[in-house]
Specification:
With 339 residues, the chain is mainly α. Helices cover 71% and strands 0% of the residues. It is built from 13 helices and no strands. The protein has helices at 6-29, 42-54, 57-68, 74-101, 113-120, 126-145, 150-170, 181-196, 201-208, 210-227, 246-260, 276-283, 289-336. The longest helix is centred in the C-terminal third of the chain and has 48 residues, at 289-336.
Amino acid sequence: MNSRDSRFEWLRVCAILFVVAHHVLMFGGDVCGYMSPFRVNGETVVGVVLNSLFVTGVNLFVMISGWFGIGRVWRPVVRLVVECAVFGALAMVLSLLLYSFLPLDKVEGCFSIDLLWRSVRFTNWWFVTHYLMLVLAAPLLEAALKNVGRRSLEHVLVCMLLFNCLFGFCWGYVNASGYNVVNFIMIYLLARYMRLFPMAVVNRLICQRAWVVIVVCMALATVWFLLDKSGWAAGRLSRAWSYNNPVIVLESVAVFSLFLKLRCDDKRAERFAPYVLGVYLLQSAPSLVYYRNVLGSWLFDNYGYVGFMVAVAVLAVVCFVLSVAVLVPLRRAMCLVGI
């Protein structure tokens, strides 16, 4: 299958918008009870409903990798580490410039070698760290998937679901929140199952009723959050939005299925999709997250959900422009040196 399939290019764009929107809602608008205790009202409930969809963004990125497979190991690892370092350095420079206009208590305003070192490490981004571990595990996964039968893969998926969702999400022995490579491996295998066996009963049902499944999952996650008051405390992320929550996993599969059904050959997405990595790295870089949150908070406080949409659009566009400006010459240079 063509790796430049328009469906998946648009899915990448959609997924990064979901990630940015999730961050703005949680940390900028603060309507989901993370930065401060959750209070029930019409405005916050709308935020909970929206976030119940946006939280699928991370799983969608992993599902794309699982659908196509990860063929190479060392080149993607080196490229990703280098790109993280470059964007981390850029984020630090932007933070220092912004600090001169708007000093914030939690932001360092003076350059130092230590600040530079802390800015360029790929471990600043939890997703990148665990995705790199997925890449390193890919040769084993791909060897196991070669010529795999439907029953064998279904057996593996059941075991992974029990391991990840029961022992992890439900009981908390491992991978309690899904923010790690264990969940990534399960999502990776789920996507490959969808590609290899599209006529399997579960795949056909979800694909045919994707919108229904999405709406039901959003409703379940919303009700879950509203009933689970332990997730209302400041600094606590509700289990309703854990990436390995079976409801969120099912919703991610349904959103993915929705894009599989698209019949389009719109190449415009190819102008945007290759640069979504830079958008993610910039808007979630430790040097810039406080400015992202200030922007989201000010716009939301003054203009409500219109301000929220403006914040998402501004962050996405600005980070996209910077991503293009960095990645085009950087990737050319890496290609020249064989990376």
